[in-house]
Every structure is written in structure tokens, then in C-alpha cells.
Write a structure and sequence with these properties.
Elements (H helix, E strand, L loop, with lengths): L5 H14 L1 E8 L2 E13 L2 E6 L12 E2 L16 E4 L9 E5 L2 H10 L16 E6 L6 E4 L2 E3 L3 E5 L18 E5 L4 E3 L4 E2 L11 E5 L9 H4 E10 L5 E6 H9 L3 H14 L2
Antiparallel strand pairs: 1-2, 1-4, 2-3, 3-6, 5-6, 7-10, 7-14, 8-9, 10-12, 11-16, 12-13, 14-15, 15-16
Helix pairs in contact: 4-5
Length: 270
């Protein structure tokens, strides 16, 4: 992966598995469905789940669940009290879910890796990128109360031009477009063809970058550049929203979080 050795590829896959969260909806009568993908952040000691705004078109916030760990959960619990922040501009397909329940926070902290805001960077023009998410068509449902999501990782390139078929409006500062339709990897390392990305909405887009002087670690070389929002009906590309708009969405939450965002932006000079 990214032209790296098998050992480094395994390390990258393990890291992405630990930070890529399937977002589940409780449907009632012990039935559940996997509806999106998210990434967890801790900001000012508070816990947030970032995902796609449009999943809330069909999902009631109080029905959201997160599995106990990347290995699944035979009895996923709803998140309890949450606050959902959405940008005022509906074209910014990002939602930030703050999790308030101490019980839910404790469950999540034991099984998932939680990131800080300094894991974000603006996307480079030319670099190596990857999407890591949970397409719904790869999920297995042994019975109604158990969805086993399958992590899918695909390397990609940023498109030089905005595709003519892209749904309008398109904002060059907000919208990122990446090539699709190529083989990717399951979390077990096996290659598979490109699935439909329903269920991967809200997934982080990662940029791989390493300098010759840099000590290699997954969290040192992988940075979040955007949040996946949609894909081309012909599987030619997928679309994401820039992490700069995600940082601005965090700033909307309250003054405490805005202060943390400002510190990160100053540190990263963005």
C-alpha cells in the first residue's frame, strides 16, 4: 500500500482499522443497520464523532450506535444524549456528533482510537491518498441484531479538474474529487473490486506523506484531508468535503471548541 513494504502496509491497515468507525442505526425490535462511517475526535476533553450530514436525512440522532470495537459488537448500544452540529450551509455535507453519556464514552474509549484535531491537513495537489470506510454492501447480517461491517481501504489520486458530471453546486475550496473504480483492500489485506460507497459516507480521506528525515509511524505519515460525501453513479470518482470546512464546523460548537480550533490552525499555519 502506498508503495510500501508488507510490514508497513500491515501497520497502515491496522491504524486505519482502529480509527474508522461504522455508524449504525437502531431500527427497533432489536434490528439495526449500518448507515455511515465516522471518525472520533477528542477536543478540550470532549468526545466527538464526525460523519456525513446527509445520513441524518433518514436517521434519527437518538438511534445512532457505535460498535464497541473494530471487531464488532453483538449488542451495540445507542449513544445516549448527543448534540449534532451541522454547518448552516447545507452543501457542506459534514455533521459533528458530541457524545455526552459517560457510559457511551467509556465503551468507545476502550475499543477505538480517538484522534486530535492536529491530524488534519489541507489536501495537497499531488500526493497519495486513501479512503477508509464501511460500504454497506460488504456488511454481513447473520441475524437481525448483528451487523458485521467490513472495512474497505482504497488508494486513490486527486483529480486535476472538477468532473463535468459533478452535481452542482461545486465549490473549489470545499469540494475535493478523487479517482475511483479501482481495486481496494479489505481489512484482512485481500484485494477486492470497487463496491458502491453507500455506508462509507462520512469516511475520512487520508493523505500519505513522509519525509526522508521523518521517523515512520502511521499517525505521523497519515493525515485527514476531507470527509467523503458522495460518489459518481458510474464509479469514476468520489467526492469529499475539505477538512478546512470541518474545522470551521467545529468552531461553530462553542467558544471552548473554537479556541482549540484556533490553536490548531495557528500551529498548522492554515
Amino acid at each position: 500500500m502506498f508503495g510500501q513494504s508488507p510490514e508497513v502496509t500491515t501497520s497502515i491497515q491496522g491504524f486505519l482499522k482502529s480509527v474508522t468507525v461504522p455508524v449504525i442505526e437502531a431500527l427497533g425490535d432489536d434490528d439495526i443497520d449500518q448507515v455511515g462511517t465516522g471518525t472520533l475526535f477528542r477536543v478540550a476533553g470532549r468526545l466527538f464523532l464526525v460523519t456525513a450530514r446527509h445520513i441524518f436525512d433518514d436517521v434519527r440522532p437518538e438511534n445512532l450506535c457505535v460498535p464497541r470495537s473494530p471487531d464488532g459488537d453483538r449488542n451495540p448500544h445507542t449513544l445516549g444524549p448527543i448534540t449534532v452540529t451541522k454547518p448552516t450551509d447545507s452543501s457542506i455535507d459534514i455533521a459533528i456528533v458530541e457524545i455526552h453519556s459517560p457510559e457511551a464514552i467509556a465503551r468507545i474509549e476502550t475499543g477505538w482510537r480517538i484522534l486530535s484535531l492536529n491530524m488534519m491537513r489541507p489536501a495537497s495537489r499531488e500526493a497519495l491518498f486513501a479512503l477508509s470506510g464501511y460500504p454497506s454492501e460488504l456488511g454481513k447480517r447473520p441475524h437481525a441484531a448483528l451487523v458485521r461491517s467490513t472495512l474497505f481501504i482504497v488508494e486513490t489520486d486527486r483529480l486535476d479538474e472538477i468532473p463535468a458530471s459533478a452535481d452542482k453546486p461545486v465549490n473549489p475550496d470545499l469540494d475535493l474529487f478523487f479517482a475511483y473504480g479501482r481495486d481496494g483492500l479489505k481489512s484482512n489485506g485481500r484485494t477486492m473490486g470497487a463496491p458502491h460507497l453507500r455506508g462509507a459516507s462520512g469516511a475520512s480521506i487520508w493523505e500519505f506523506s513522509q519525509s526522508a528525515e521523518q521517523l515512520w509511524t502511521p499517525d505521523g505519515t497519515l493525515k485527514i484531508v476531507g470527509v467523503q460525501s458522495s460518489m459518481d453513479r458510474n464509479y469514476d470518482y468520489f467526492r469529499a468535503k475539505s477538512c478546512l470546512y470541518l474545522l470551521e464546523a467545529f468552531r461553530q460548537i462553542d467558544n471552548e471548541i473554537a479556541s482549540e480550533v484556533d490553536k490548531v490552525r495557528k500551529q498548522l499555519k492554515i
